[in-house]
Give the backbone structure.
Amino acid sequence: MFKTASSYLRQTAPTCSIVSWSLNRAVERAMGQVKLGQEYSLPDFFADTEPNQFAPWPTHEKLAFGKDMIPTLVRLLNVSRREKPVLQLLRSLEHLLSDPEHCVVALQLDVLKALTSLILQKSSAIQLWVMACLRVIAGNPHGKMEIVKRSIILTAIINNFNAADRDLRQMAYTIMHRLSENWFVVDELQKEDCIQLVLKSIFSISSDDVVENRKSLVCLLQTLGNLIDYKNGVLKAIRYDLFELRWLLSCGMRDVEEATLNVFVRVSKDEVGRLGIRYKHVGKMMLSHFYGVVDEGGDPTLVGTMLMFSTLPNNERDDYNKMNTVSAVMEVFKEPTLSNVSRLVLLKLLTNLAELPIGRSSIKNHLQFLISVPICDPIVQESAETLIKKILWTP
């Protein structure tokens, strides 16, 4: 071994064992795009993903290279009991699991069995690193179902929603969000009453703390949108005062407003949800912000989608016509930078409103524009032609 002032050379693993993921990281490091001080903060790594690079500490020999890394870490996690070595192993494991191939290998070696025993320990540091590993696994398609199959792990994630440590809570929020992206997993999460859990966490954030907890709030709202979009999730959410979230639609933070709007878009797909939107005046609130979305450079697709679903029943159409919805929609529709998806949604909304005489008469005032507006997309063009035919129809 030859040591220099800043780094050292040592015997390396065979070059054939270097995977593309490791090589990319090695190139980034060589180009100075990775700061070693941030990436390799204590605790140390016990396994090396880039065996042909200078190791960050001359005094710490690695335990494994290449294909032996994950099996070695899983084996040591099952037998290690002292806190410092366990933290070192978890730090290495969390780093390696970022590679999807390593994650699949770890799941095949039943890494969750080791994490199950570790998550029950009283050490907050170990719990935090176990949650960090679970966060990575939850982002892997193969790992989502494996996590919910482990009742101890799922219970620990749910319990950490109320943890005193803010980092633990944020980890739990992120894991739940990633798990909710799979409908098969959502079925299990609904059985654990996770809709109530997420809503309770959102309600615990007061209006004064929204800015400070902005990231957590967006994550929770996105999770809620995924959970209620499956089976009777909307009914469960309404039972737990879902519509009390409507004040977030005008909180002044674009990402929070869009995440909240996405929740109400999912609600508007449900018949009972549409009744709630009507009686809680959510649609009226949306119309008041319709102009602002475009003026601020936003995308009106979400607003239009919610209004489109909300105007499916005849009695809803009458209410929206009385609120001058046509004028608001046409004002937005005339924007030259509007995307084809937004145009399609708004045309569907206008078609719903045109089912009633009052709606047809309001849209007729803009008939010339609808006929002459240039539309390149054939699907949008077909929707525009359908709307025009409906406007010109006479009973």
